[in-house]
């Protein structure tokens, strides 16, 4: 493999290592990964700057003018660099494969959001049923609020009923954030019920309407947050499995045989316990030698 190709391949590996380690690497750790390439301090400065611009935390690195160059990454400079034969340190424009992966993830998110916008049959029926609910005017709303604060159970059903359309209105503001409209409405309705129960207590409130809407919004934001946390965790696991599988193949090439757990753990710089956990989460598994040195 030519030096230029090897450098690009090593850079990709470093990005994979960073992802596995929570987007964080030390300067010495990076130098160890590039150890056999004999790079200069100036070249390492470009590497550190590139990684920092790619949102990787490089422990110990102090951002310089070089970082600003990678952060700005003007289009004109990229085109100029492409027309010349770049040196290794000049090739550290945002990596094509990283940009491609990011674009693929955005496309997946767009497709997911598009699917979420397709109303289910249940939701269509629910929305149609709500059309039959008589809208409350300001006078009725005032009387309902007063009755609720006086803890009259007879008005609770009507009070909830007239606020259901507001839940839908708020839910539409939170669309395209990883949760279906149906689920947003469901969580918002739960928030509405909780708010109403609180209104039936002696809680002092300055504005009942803002209080109710706040409960509804909080319920929706909570499910969006929980869904986002779950998606991020799933993507992190996928990245780790992909990295371990690739590392296993690279190790096999170097050793001329399949490595064992101990060798692979040392190769990717994680504990054997963590490595086993990652392998167990992989559907296809990772080929390893059963022999343990």
UniProtKB/TrEMBL annotation:
PROSITE patterns: SIGMA70_1. InterPro entries: RNA_pol_sigma70 (IPR000943), RNA_pol_sigma70_r2 (IPR007627), RNA_pol_sigma_r2 (IPR013325), RNA_pol_sigma_r3/r4-like (IPR013324), Sigma-70_RNA_pol_init_factors (IPR050239), WH-like_DNA-bd_sf (IPR036388). GO terms for biological process: DNA-templated transcription initiation. GO terms for molecular function: DNA binding; DNA-binding transcription factor activity. Residues 72-113 are annotated as: Disordered. Residues 78-94 have a biased composition (Acidic residues). SUPFAM superfamilies: Sigma2 domain of RNA polymerase sigma factors, Sigma3 and sigma4 domains of RNA polymerase sigma factors. Residues 183-196 form the RNA polymerase sigma-70 domain. It comes from the Bacteria. Residues 102-113 have a biased composition (Basic and acidic residues). Pfam families: Sigma70_r2. This is RNA polymerase primary sigma factor. It comes from Anaerocolumna jejuensis DSM 15929.
């Amino acid at each position: 493999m030519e030096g230029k190709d090897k450098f690009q391949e090593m850079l990709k590996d470093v990005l994979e290592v960073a992802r596995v380690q929570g987007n964080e690497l030390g300067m010495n750790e990076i130098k160890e990964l590039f150890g056999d390439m004999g790079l200069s301090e100036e070249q390492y400065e470009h590497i550190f700057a590139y990684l920092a611009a790619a949102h990787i935390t490089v422990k110990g690195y102090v951002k310089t003018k070089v970082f600003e160059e990678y952060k700005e990454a003007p289009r004109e400079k990229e085109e100029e660099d492409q027309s010349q034969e770049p040196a290794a340190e000049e090739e550290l424009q945002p990596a094509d494969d990283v940009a491609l992966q990011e674009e693929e993830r955005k496309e997946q998110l767009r497709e997911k959001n598009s699917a979420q916008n397709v109303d289910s049959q249940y939701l269509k029926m629910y929305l149609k049923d709500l059309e039959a609910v008589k809208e409350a005017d300001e006078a009725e709303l005032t009387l309902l609020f007063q009755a609720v604060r006086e803890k009259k159970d007879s008005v609770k059903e009507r009070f909830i009923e007239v606020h259901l359309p507001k839940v839908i209105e708020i839910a539409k503001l939170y669309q395209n954030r990883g949760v279906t409209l149906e689920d947003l409405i469901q969580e918002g309705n739960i928030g509405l019920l909780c708010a109403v129960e609180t209104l039936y207590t002696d809680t002092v409130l300055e504005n009942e309407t803002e209080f109710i809407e706040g409960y509804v919004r909080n319920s929706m934001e909570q499910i969006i947050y929980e869904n986002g946390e779950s998606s991020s965790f799933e993507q992190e696991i996928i990245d780790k499995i992909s990295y371990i599988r690739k590392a296993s193949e690279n190790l096999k090439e170097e050793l001329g045989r399949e490595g064992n757990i101990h060798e692979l753990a040392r190769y990717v710089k994680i504990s054997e316990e963590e490595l086993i956990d990652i392998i167990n989460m992989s559907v296809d598994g990772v080929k390893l030698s059963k022999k343990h040195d």
